[in-house]
Every structure is written in structure tokens, then in C-alpha cells.
Amino acid sequence: MFFGTSQIARKVIFQAIEDAASEEADIRDDAIRWMRSSDFDEACMEAELDSSMMKKFYSQILKLPVGIRRRKAKELMKKYLG
Q1: Neighbours of 22 (CB within 10 A)
Q2: Which residues contact 19 (CB under 8 A, 6 or more apart)?
Q3: Is 1 helix (H, G, I), strand (E, B) or coil?
Q4: Would you list the domain boundaries of the chain?
Q5: What are the backbone dihedrals phi and psi of residue 36, each rounded to the nearest 5 degrees, phi first?
Q6: Would you list the DSSP string of 19-57?
Q7: Can you give the pLDDT at residue 62?
Q8: 78 contacts 37 by C-beta, under 8 angstroms
Q9: In this predicted structure, what is the pLDDT of residue 66?
Q10: What does pLDDT average to in each consecutive run of 10 residues of the chain (82 residues)?
């Protein structure tokens, strides 16, 4: 792992979670597709995050109304990024 890559990987993951909460279908669908890929698992490993926990989190978020999804995604970022 290179210096700072963990933090960068976290930002990418949380951006994807925010994008999955987007009202724009193209953005939302691309983010969800990426989060279901092995690239997402690799990003979680680099970010030192449990990919199954992150997948469970975003699966729960996707069941919520859009406005609440965004708030929950932001709460997650604050928890992990400070």
C-alpha cells in the first residue's frame, strides 16, 4: 500500500455510495454496477474496509427514499473519514 492510498480508496468508495443515492439513473446505475464488481472489493481492501459490511450498508441505503439515502451516505463518510 502506498502512502495515502487508503484514504483515497475510502473517498472513491464513499463517492460511489453517494452516487448510488443519486436521482440520476445513469449515475446511480453505474455506481451500483461498480459496487457489485470485484474492483469494489479490491478498493475496500485497499481502504482497509470490510467489503461485505460496505455492501450491506449500501444495500440498506438503496431501500430508503433518495433524500434519506444521501444523508445516510454522508453519515458513513463522517464516521470513517472524520
Answers
A1: 17
A2: 27, 28, 30, 31
A3: coil
A4: 5-81
A5: -95, 5
A6: HHT-SSHHHHHHHHHHHTSHHHHHHHHHHT--HHHHHHH
A7: 82
A8: no
A9: 75
A10: 76 88 90 94 92 85 81 76 59
Q: Any idea which residue has 446511480 for its cell?
A: 28
Query: For residues 11 and 29, what is the distance between their CA atoms, to the nearest angstrom?
Result: 19
75: cell is 453519515
Residue with cell 439513473: 25
| Alpha carbon distances (Å) from 44 to 23, 24, 27, 81, 82 | 25, 25, 20, 14, 17
pLDDT tens figures, 66-82: 778 888 877 877 776 65
Is 43 in contact with 12 (CB distance < 8 Å)?
Answer: yes
pLDDT for 5: 85
